[in-house]
Design brief:
The chain is about 40% helix and about 10% strand. The protein is α/β, with parallel strands linked by helices and about 350 residues long. A hairpin with a 2-residue loop joins strand 2 and strand 3. It starts with 10 loop residues before the first strand and ends with a strand. The structure holds protoporphyrin IX containing FE. The site of protoporphyrin IX containing FE has 24 residues, from helix 3 and helix 8.
């Protein structure tokens, strides 16, 4: 039940993902109401057929019982960009935080790096232990609504500023939800991508890495193990007629993971070959490649993800990260973000 990527670092995908990887068809029925798609042209047509509904969004799905207004969504992404760029200009926290189980060790390290300057209770919004519990999240939300922080506090993030400067209670509760979701999506996604790259590099590449190689390594990782491996569209009339298999009302699961590994689109598709990106000016224009979505629903944070992952990867490699799986094949569990699970410790 495993797909070999290279002899020294193979992977055991969760059975449900492996079943998908074993399929030859690019359009297939998953269950009576759901169709899976990995055909490049059809995928683009589906994304273009209608805008994403607010409830299909992840970061910008409704919060505090109301849709997120467009201007507050754009303010959030601008603030996140400023915080991420300011964060990576700061020296990283002690590297020992990268030891442990990845991708979680990477997520905690990034959170400390980028968001630890915010005061309590806002800082609790980005704590993994809190966001995994609904009751703790509710308590923290209430505390943040009452004590959103003082203006002019040195070092606090722009995202925290949006909570503090909100003009009414609804805007404040939504800004707190945006803080939690944006920091979680960024840190989980970047740590997942970095961990996937560390795994795919294998022991030799991890020893002999050069700074200039890392961008191509990350693009090749986004091809072979894209964190956003499945995109979802709820049923509706918009897709019926795009393909005979799709009936009115069917939900659609789009699989960049399968498309990125299909021999019709890629040479030696299962091999990790960062050199395939040499001389490619804009990887996102590569056919059958959509790690950040297609036009119509493209990721608003894509410009942040690769530079941050490159910084985290550099720090891990500079500190001689040693990677091992408790088993011969590392596991890729069934999660909304695709990431290899492994143990790491530092050599220096
Ligand atoms: C490694 C991290 C990330 C990856 C791999 C990623 C990937 C993607 C992908 C594949 C899409 C297309 C979704 C679809 O068509 O259904 C998308 C859309 C989007 N992403 Fe990201 N994303 C990441 C992080 C983030 C972060 C941190 C934010 C913002 C805080 C964000 C905001 C968005 C938005 C606003 C959209 C457009 C969909 C919509 O209209 O809601 N993403 N992303």
């Amino acid at each position: 039940m495993s797909t070999a990527v290279a002899p020294s670092h193979s992977l055991a995908f969760a059975p449900r993902i492996q079943e998908l990887l074993d399929r030859d068809e690019k359009v297939f029925r998953i269950d009576p109401d759901k169709v899976g798609v990995s055909d490049s042209r059809l995928l683009a047509e589906i994304v273009a057929a209608r805008p994403v509904h607010s409830t299909e969004r992840s970061v910008y799905k409704p919060a505090a019982g109301a849709d997120i207004p467009h201007d507050s969504a754009t303010r959030t992404i601008r603030a996140l960009g400023q915080d991420a760029m300011a964060g990576i200009r700061k020296p990283p926290p002690p590297a020992r935080g990268m030891s442990g189980t990845w991708p979680y060790a990477g997520t905690s390290h990034l959170r400390r790096w980028l968001f630890s300057d915010d005061a309590l209770p806002v800082a609790l919004l980005s704590k993994r232990g809190v966001s995994r519990s609904d009751s703790l999240s509710l308590l923290v939300d209430r505390a943040v609504t009452r004590w959103p922080g003082r203006p002019g506090r040195a070092g606090s993030t722009e995202l925290a500023g949006l909570i503090r400067d909100a003009e009414d209670p609804l805007e404040r509760r939504q800004a707190a939800a945006m803080y939690r979701r944006a920091t979680a999506t960024l840190c989980d996604g970047v740590a997942g991508l970095t961990g996937n790259a560390l795994w795919l590099m294998g022991p030799q590449r991890r020893q002999e890495w050069h700074r200039g190689d890392l961008t191509a390594i990350l693009w090749e990782t986004l091809r072979l193990l894209p964190p956003a491996w499945m995109l979802y569209r709820k049923g509706g009339e918009a897709y019926a007629g795009l393909h005979p298999e799709i009936r009115p009302g069917d939900d659609i699961a789009l699989f960049p993971l399968l498309m990125h590994r299909h021999a019709d689109y890629w040479s030696q598709p299962l091999e990790f070959r960062p050199e395939r990106w040499d001389g490619v000016a804009d990887p996102e224009k590569a056919p059958a490649f959509m790690p950040f979505g297609f036009d119509g629903a493209r990721c608003w944070a894509k410009h942040l993800v690769v530079p941050l992952a490159e910084r985290l990867l550099t720090t891990a490699l500079e500190n001689g990260i040693l990677v091992r799986s408790p088993r011969p094949e590392a596991e890729v569990p069934l999660r909304s973000l695709l990431s290899v699970r492994f143990e790491a410790r530092l050599a220096v």
